[in-house]
Amino acid sequence: MTVPPPCRKAVIPAAGFGTRFLPFTKAVPKELIPLVDKPVIQYVVEEAVASGLEEVLVVLSTGKEAIADHFNPAPALEARLSADGKERLLTEVRALNHLARIHYVYQAELNGLGDAIRCAAAFVGNEPFAVLLGDTVLTGDDGRPVTGQLLQAYRKTGGPVVALEEVPREWTRRYGVISGQSADGALYELDSLVEKPAPEEAPSNLAIASRYVFTPDLFAALERTPRGKGNEIQLTDAMLLLLRERPLFGLRFAGRRHDIGDKFEFLKNTVTFGLERPEFRDRFAAFLRAELSKLEGSDFV
To answer: How far is the C-alpha of 196 from the C-alpha of 167, rounded, in Å?
Structure first.
């Protein structure tokens, strides 16, 4: 097989309203929701960089300029930290300025994920590219970034690859769901995709999990994609069109998905990430045990 062109670019859609996290997201982008002291989108950009991607395009909408502010230099803040001798914090803040070569484009109307990715056509050009949804953190096993795992599968297959996660069947109505064949239980060649099917209609319980590697022919498919569910241009529908023309693949990644778009999942993941921080672990664990002990004998335990 011919070696496919290298993938250098990442696209991070971050234009949605974040209605599931209102009222917080009325003024603050959902992508800036923190896990401990770091916003979700910073984890996402760090994953792209750790996977070897060189340039990042963030797709914004009006009112989400705070995302760019997070990664841009902040001279007044840096001067205050320097004057106060807070060198560790100064180093962390300055590191954001050089984390990646980040570009921005605006999605004029919020017409769905497919339309948001279509806004990246000029940035991508005729190259393969990764898509990382800006409101979901994925952690790979053994320090292997999930996007890096997809890129390895792309180099093996030469075709588009999506991240797959096994979910409870009753959750299928939340995701795009695939059917496909696998020789090893990890890498699948896709037969079909369905956007948010009812559990009884889902072809499997393998859900597309917020990470993709695409070839540039996706843009031609997006141009032919009519509005679908929610009267939006659905990425899953464009992928179905692409599937008629070339093989698509899915990879059951080694790792864990942390969806921050749901309030209950946010609470769970705050606990998970808090317990992983050495400076907080013991005190936080003790606090949680103490709080749970107060519930013993109540209706909650």
So the answer is: 12
Q: List C-alpha distances in Å: 251 to 4, 102, 172, 235, 294.
A: 18, 27, 18, 18, 43
Model pLDDT for residues 102-129, shown as the tens digit of each residue: 999 999 888 889 999 999 999 999 999 9
Which residues have a Cβ under 8 Å from the Cβ of 217 and sit 6 or more positions away? 242, 245, 246
In eight-state DSSP terms, residue 94 is H
Q: Which residues of the chain form beta strands (DSSP E)?
A: 9-13, 34-35, 38-39, 55-60, 101-106, 129-132, 136-140, 161-166, 176-182, 187-195, 206-214, 249-252, 255-259
Tokens read off for 71: 């990664």
Write out the two tokens for 62.
């009006």
Rounded to whole angstroms, how far apart are CA atoms 12 and 16? 12
Two tokens, residue 256: 């864990």
Contact present, 173 and 199 (Cβ < 8 Å): yes
**Beta pairing partners, 104:** 58
- Predicted structure pTM score: 0.92
Indicate the angle between helix axes 146-157 and 40-50, nearest 10 degrees: 40
Phi, psi at 203, each rounded to 5°: -75, -15
* Two structure tokens written together for 23: 């009222």
53-89 burial: b if 16+ Cβ within 10 Å, else e: bebbbbbbbeebeebeebbeeeeeeeeebeeeeeeee
pLDDT in tens, 209-266: 999 999 999 999 999 988 777 778 889 899 999 999 999 999 999 999 998 877 888 9
Segment (H or E) for 239: helix 235-243
The identity of residue 37, as a single letter, is D
- In the numeric block, which tokens belong to residue 193? 């995709």
Residue 212 · residue 131 · CB < 8 Å: yes
